[in-house]
């Protein structure tokens, strides 16, 4: 039983493949409770792994949503990705290998803007996971290209 009282019944919701050119470098996967909408997210490399490796916490339904955050590579440092659960107005810190730590504010659209000037940074891009799930993103170009297989209703 969860905090919300729901006995979660998680169903696979899809994956976002993170590519560098033709190579899959990471996979973000999501499972959603078919009763209440709680979401579990996993972040893993492209190889075969155990079912629990890379699993992040379960997010109960509410204001917070999963956001995937990408940052640009530099020289020998490759681009990378993480997933965080955020709410609009929340302040978050993201640390990247070549840019160091920076503070961000979550917008009403769940995208991250730099605290210092309210702008979307050039080097860090963020997308609500629901918008990019069932698709892929190519980090070999910057800003990265996003391709989705989402079916549009209506
Ligand atoms: Zn549930």
In summary, what is this structure?
The protein has about 150 residues and is mainly beta. The protein is about 5% helix and about 50% strand.
What do you see in this structure?
With 154 residues, the protein is an all-beta fold. The protein has one domain. It has one helix at residues 129-132, and strands at 10-20, 23-33, 39-44, 55-59, 65-71, 80-86, 91-96, 100-106, 112-114, 124-128, 135-138, 145-148. The chain has a 6-stranded mixed β-sheet. Strands 6-5-10 form a 3-stranded antiparallel β-sheet. It has a 3-stranded antiparallel β-sheet with strand order 7-8-9, with no helix packed on it. 22% of the residues are buried. Zinc ion is lined by residues 6, 8, 33, 35-36, 38.
Number of self-contained structural domains:
1
Weakly predicted, low-confidence segments: none
Helix content: under 10%
Q: Overall 3D geometry?
A: globular
Alpha plus pi helix count:
1
The major sheet is characterized as: 6 strands, mixed
Provide the succession of SSEs: EEEEEEEEEEHEE
Strand order of the largest sheet: 4-3-2-1-11-12
Average of the residue pLDDT scores: 88
**Small molecules bound in the structure, each named once:** zinc ion
Distance between the termini: 37 Å
Number of distinct beta strands? 12
Structural class: mainly beta
What portion of the residues fall into strands of 2 or more residues? over 45%
